Amino acid sequence: MLKTDVRYLKGIGPARGRQLSRLGIETIFDLLLHVPRSYNDRRIITSIRSLVPGEEVNVSGTIVSSVYLKSKNGKNRLESILRDNTGELKLTFFNFRYIAGRLKAGTRVIASGRIDYFGGISIVHPELIFLDEQDSDTRLVLPVYPLTAGITQGVMRKLIETVLDEYVSGVPEVLPPDVLNSMGFQNRSEVISKLHFPDDPFEGSRARRALALEELFVHQSLLNYVRIKATKRTGIKMIPPDGSLKGFVSSLPYNLTGAQQKVLEAIAADLRRDVPMRRLLQGDVGSGKTVVAAAACNLCCRSGYQAVMVAPTEVLASQHYRTVSGMLEPAGIRCGLLTGGTKASHRRNLLESLLDGSLDVLIGTHAIFEERVVIPGMGLCIIDEQHKFGVEQREKLLSERDPSPHFMLMSATPIPRTLAMTIYGDLDISVLDEMPPGRGSTTTRVMNRDSRSKVYEFLLDRLGNGERAYIIYPLREASVELDLKDAASSFEILKRGPLGKFGVGLLTGAMKSVEKLEVTGKFVSGEISILVSTTVVEVGLDVPEATVMVVTHAERFGLSQLHQLRGRIGRGGSDSWCFLMKGEDCGAEGARRLAILDSMNDGFRIAEEDLQLRGPGEVAGTRQHGVPAFRIASLIDDSDLMEKAADMATRSDLWESLRDEYKLRFRGLDILEI
Ligand code: ADP
Ligand code: MG
User: Fold this and answer.
1) Do the Cβ atoms of 604 and 612 come closer than 8 Å?
2) Which residues, including other chains, have CB under 8 Å from residue 278's CB and lie 6 or more apart?
């Protein structure tokens, strides 16, 4: 019944239906959970003498007079004067047929609305409580809803009252009774009723919290279900020959950091179990995730299975191929690279050697999955920086195979714990929280536009010293409207200027992948020393000689995005500099935001700031990862409820009974079909 389309409700025609759908309201359920943005507490009365234009107030008094006025443009109006013991206030109505006759002198009312200045201090179209009328709506606390054109507060309240009357008693329970009781409610229908018509605003916000907890609980129950289902799949027990890991580690030109060792031990333990590994490896840029991935591939292949490693772009796939094959081939493990750009003949060879088992590790782009490449001995699947690899994609990939391969997702997008629990709640999370030693320091400076020449001088100096630089632009193509210098046109200018002699290259998302590979190749080898680019260099590019980054219009980027960008420098032994150039339209707010970056270097804390400042969709990469559209819970204000919800979900295991609830809430997720 809750799924019933609102258009079947009495009094809702096609026009109103369209208005409601602009608010995201399609069903009765949507209407029941249309959360008030605030409450108007009409017990809080302001005296007329202290009214200030612009404020939302309630005024209580007696009508002294009402007059009809005709205006030239034919817009008639009713003006009533309301008096309390401090002064008089005008109430103005342009649409007054419904009210005519009720506002006679001597009538006592509470008038609510925003104070305007309309030929004197006035409220236009106040909401009224008629204190002397028997059947008037005298509820003192009224919900104030988000609205859309054509729907007034009054209409919305009426609609919600109607559905509450008819449907709220039938809503199924979701939260366990003891949890509800501890929040001060008997059952769910009480919570929903009080959300709309509480006795006081505090009760209203308690009801909202209970519904937020409920929502997080439903979502966590799904993740818990996915996790449990996964542990029931048959995994592959990988028993590598003794000393495999030690041998691999001692072949490296450096010692692993403590964090790398710890994570590797956890992975090695996972691989030995007959339950498929499901792990997220989080680590700030430069923390050394690739070698951990290579070590995992080593263990997999030494145990007789094949491994797959997927990167989001061809540039990164080839970089991984270079690094990983460099570490594995000396030990006799054969690696191949397969991307969209691989020549047909080479592709055929690769596919054959996968089939006959002579190829151990396949590195490539997402094309590997899409082209139905057959990997008979696939025991480990590692996905690096793969956006759009949410819980649904993970399930699709892993549920198809029996036995199910071990799985590891790698991410350099540090995200706050609440977000991680939302997006990756079905995975075990490991964090590389220690940087390899021997790195130079990175200094970040926020710069004004008029310091451009200083930055330029600095660049000339560093480049003259044999170092390399990135220059980053927020846009790919010229936008006349925004008057932003774009990467392409500034590339043309730089090439012809004094920096030109150091070799300038352009890398944008719109380029063909062969072109991208060519230009990054030149930058890696040092044939060119300046790479002009957009955020496409954000993920993964590893050029230790790059020591300077200049970001133009820095205020247009998110904090965590800027943090990821600057992770491209400071990867070698020498000190690095990141200049965040403010644009003309960078206000004080933008400058304050940027300043956070010159004092803070911890990606997790920066992401936390981003979450606070810009909301969950803006934390780098999370939009693509698909933060579910919570309608009630806020990942910022309700983050304290997340742990509770997760804990309840693991303990109660109620998923089967919550399936319908999930479908009602999170439309468009096809995870349930899997
Ligand atoms: P990310 O986590 O950003 O993917 P990478 O795996 O690309 O980081 O590693 C960054 C750089 O650090 C690489 O040049 C790599 O060779 C180097 N590196 C990784 N681990 C160590 C270590 N334990 N000691 C010294 N250098 C390391
Ligand atoms: Mg990387």
Assistant:
1) no
2) 227, 230, 394, 398, 407, 426, 427, 428
CA 425 to ligand 1 center in whole angstroms:
27
Domain harbouring 535, CATH code: 3.40.50.300
Question: 394-434 pLDDT, tens per residue?
Answer: 777 777 788 889 999 998 877 777 778 888 888 888 989 88
Examine the domain organization and report whether 464 and 404 are in the same domain.
no
Query: Given a cut of 60, is residue 654 above it in pLDDT?
Result: yes
Ligand 1 geometric centre to CA of 241 (Å): 26
Closest CA to 542 of 385, 406, 373, 336: 385
Would you state the pLDDT for residue 275?
Answer: 92
Judge if pTM exceeds 0.90: no
**CA 76 → CA 68, 95, 640, distances in Å?**
7, 8, 53
How much distance in Å is there from the Cα of 105 to the middle of ligand 1? 82
- Residue minimizing CA distance to atom 26 of ligand 1: 436
pLDDT above 80 (res 235): yes
Q: Which residue has the higher pLDDT, 469 or 610?
A: 469
Q: Are residues 311 and 399 in the same domain?
A: yes
Decide if 16 is inside a domain: no
Whole domain around residue 294: which residue ranges?
244-272+288-411
SS3 content of the chain, % helix, strand, coil (to 5): 45, 20, 40
pLDDT above 60 for 77? yes
* Domain final position from 109, 139, 169: 139
Residues flanking ligand 1, CB < 6 Å:
254, 256-257, 260, 283, 285-291, 412, 436, 542, 544, 571
Query: Which residues line ion ligand 2, judged by CB < 5 Å?
Result: 540
Instruction: Look at ligand 1, atom 12, and give the residue with the nearest C-alpha.
Output: 288
